[in-house]
Amino acid sequence: MKLKEVFITRTAVFFPNNPISNDEMEGFLGLVNDNESKSRRLVLRNNGIKSRYYAMTREGKSTHTNAELTSLAIKNLFLKDSNEIKQIDLLSCGTSSPDQLMPSHGVMVHGWLPESNAIEVISPSGNCCSGMHALKYNFMSIRTGESTKTISTGSERLSRVMRSEQFEIEVQKRIELEKDPYLAFEKDFLRWMLSDGAAAFLIEDKKNVHDISLRIDWIEGFSFANQVETCMYMGAEKDEKGDLKCFSDFSPIEIMEKSIFSIKQDVKLLGENIVKLGFKNLEIIFNKKGVLKLEWQPH
């Protein structure tokens, strides 16, 4: 079987509401225990991001769902001809923050697109990898001739779970027990990193005859879950051994007391491994694909 070429022929984004400056962020996310975050300025200085978008009002009222954000990015692909969406035969939507556990994120996005046809829909999940997994599914589907005109998306809506009220019960509990500072850095860190929005790619087996196309030759991914413990997680708690206890094994009271549904990142684990493991396999991939010769020497 002859494999087809694969092209990104169009891109689009959708960001909700007005951009929020760094100085405004805590006004939207709120103060935890009426205290300003001690890590906010440090994180913002290092990440270099100047503004965010939040799918909520300053009072915390939601303005868009994740699925709605994604559908609006998709609609922006077809501003010149809205009927073109009827030609799509695959929708692949990656996210780490779906609006619900069931139904899947992808079918909820499809529900916001009544002008489309009945098509194949897939919903890759995960953290930073979910959007790339969605893209690879499109790539493989077109490459093998299963599809000809597809949409791949990546989206997040995390602002609501970063609001201060998500942590208040945990704060009070920790104060009562005279434990560590009120909010672990692993939880506070991501409050100043993340925001809401969606992006969409139109991916086809033919070039865009009117504009620039980007050809995809290959996509490779690796998991290191067999070597290191979990780094970023949500809806779970990590124990002293590094194992995760899932939300369904906590009581409703424990879920609130431990802010189980906050998003956490083990920044120490990230710092120790992101370069070491990332470049180790980058060398393998590049040498395998003949892109260039790398000789990675970990320090």
Give an overview of the whole structure.
The chain has 299 residues and is of the alpha+beta class. It has a domain at 1-17 and 53-158 and 195-221: Peroxisomal Thiolase, Chain A, domain 1. 30% of the residues lie in helices and 18% in strands. The chain has helices spanning 25-29, 40-47, 66-75, 105-111, 130-143, 168-177, 185-191, 252-257, 267-289, and strands at residues 6-14, 20-21, 51-52, 90-95, 120-122, 149-156, 197-204, 214-216, 232-234, 236-238, 244-246, 263-265. Strands 5-4-6-7-1-8 form a 6-stranded mixed beta sheet, with helices on both faces. Strands 2-3 form a two-stranded antiparallel sheet. β4 (90-95), α4 and β5 (120-122) form a beta-alpha-beta unit. α3 packs across α4. It is globular and about 60 Å long. It starts with 5 loop residues before the first strand and ends in a 10-residue tail after the last helix. The model has no long low-confidence stretch (mean pLDDT 89).
How is this fold's topology laid out?
Layout lengths: L5 E9 L5 E2 L3 H5 L10 H8 L3 E2 L13 H10 L14 E6 L9 H7 L8 E3 L7 H14 L5 E8 L11 H10 L7 H7 L5 E8 L9 E3 L15 E3 L1 E3 L5 E3 L5 H6 L5 E3 L1 H23 L10
Parallel strand pairs: 4-5, 4-6
Antiparallel strand pairs: 1-7, 1-8, 2-3, 6-7, 9-12, 10-11
Number of helices: 9
Q: Which CATH-level-2 architecture of the domain at 1-17 and 53-158 and 195-221? A: 3-Layer(aba) Sandwich
Strand content: 15-25%
Category from helices, strands and their pairing: alpha+beta
Mean pLDDT: 89
CATH third-tier fold name of the domain at 1-17 and 53-158 and 195-221: Peroxisomal Thiolase, Chain A, domain 1
Biggest β-sheet: strands ordered side by side in the sheet? 5-4-6-7-1-8
* Bulk shape: globular
- Given as residue ranges, the uncertain stretches (5+ residues, pLDDT < 50) are none
**How much helicity do the residues have?**
25-40%
> Largest beta sheet, briefly?
6 strands, mixed
Q: What sequence of helices (H) and strands (E) makes up the elements?
A: EEHHEHEHEHEHHEEEEEHEH
CATH class annotation of the domain at 1-17 and 53-158 and 195-221? Alpha Beta
Radius of gyration: 21 Å
Terminal CA distance reads 44 Å
CATH superfamily of the domain at 1-17 and 53-158 and 195-221: Thiolase/Chalcone synthase
Number of strands: 12
